[in-house]
Amino acid sequence: MILVTGAAGFIGFHVARELAEQGREVIGTDNINDYYSPQLKQDRIRELEALSSFSFHKLDLCDYDGMEKLFKGLGIKDWTVDVPCITGRLKENPEFHIRPEVGGKYLRYGYGEGLHAGAPGYACGTHLMAVAADGKTAKCSFYADSPVGSIEEGLRANWQRIKPVRLESLNCDCHFLSECRGGCRYRALLSGNELGKDFYRCHSYDILHSDE
Ligand code: SF4
Ligand code: SF4
Q1: What was the pLDDT predicted at 211?
Q2: pLDDT in tens, 26-75
Q3: Which residue has the least CA distance to atom 8 on ligand 1?
Q4: Does 44 lie in the same domain as 16?
Q5: Looking at the structure, do residues 7 and 62 belong to the same domain, yes or no?
Q6: pLDDT, position 117
Q7: Ligand 2 center to residue 75 CA distance, Å?
Q8: How far away, in angstroms, is 157 Cα from ligand 1 center?
Q9: Ligand 2 atom nearest residue 207's Cα
């Protein structure tokens, strides 16, 4: 099942049609706004709906309640909602920063284990390892500047060098620890302490009421 957002737009329409014609199950969403002719958009959706493997839901991608309802209705087991870490190019563009009290509100959405699932008793993504284009490996791509090795040494050997983070080692003192697992270690690192709190997550659990 493939979700194509903006399915009534120029690119979305062609992508959805190509996939549906290949026989893939395609779910299309679009809010059919009036940025340009809504009639044209509706005509495109009608054309797509003639394909048996396509179905359409008029929905705005920014409507989180609506998206959640759609995913749950489709039986989707995992929905990951995240906020970007303020690093790299994002760091250079402060106008795009999302503050913890704002980002936390969106982190409340999303359900299931997601990509960053950890083993019981451990913080984020114990199974994860990122391999960069140059073959260097790291805990995840945010840690690319501190690689643990390179792919020539074998993936297993590299992965075994990544030190898993135990929940008991975190400076977290809330009742949500086993569920939250301390959130994202890299976000905590950006706040000054890799074993500290991920303030975005704290706001998502409503245990902070300021922009701490
Ligand atoms: S540090 Fe953050 S992005 Fe990296 S694996 Fe952990 S939760 Fe995921
Ligand atoms: S909500 Fe905050 S304090 Fe609680 S586990 Fe998550 S990051 Fe730690």
Answers
A1: 47
A2: 999 999 999 999 999 999 999 999 999 999 999 999 999 999 999 999 99
A3: 116
A4: yes
A5: yes
A6: 72
A7: 29
A8: 20
A9: 1
Q: From CA 90, how far away is CA 82, in angstroms rounded? A: 15
* Phi-psi group of 29: left, alpha or beta (phi > 0 → left; psi -120 to 50 → alpha; rest → beta): beta
Is the pLDDT confidence value at 210 over 80? no
Residue 131 falls inside a structural domain: no
Burial class (CB in 10 A: 0-12, 13-18, 19+), 204: buried
Which pLDDT value is given to residue 209?
58
Contact 123, 181 (CB under 8 A): yes
The band of 127, judged by pLDDT with boundaries at 50, 70 and 90, is confident
Pocket around ligand 2 at a 6 A CB cut-off: 172, 174, 176-177, 180, 182-183, 197-198, 201-202, 205, 207
Report residues whose beta carbon is within 6 angstroms of any ligand 1 atom.
Answer: 116, 124-125, 128, 140, 142, 184-186
Residue 146 belongs to what domain range?
Answer: 136-162
Mean pLDDT, to the nearest integer, of 168-182?
Answer: 93
Structure tokens at 43: 């005509």
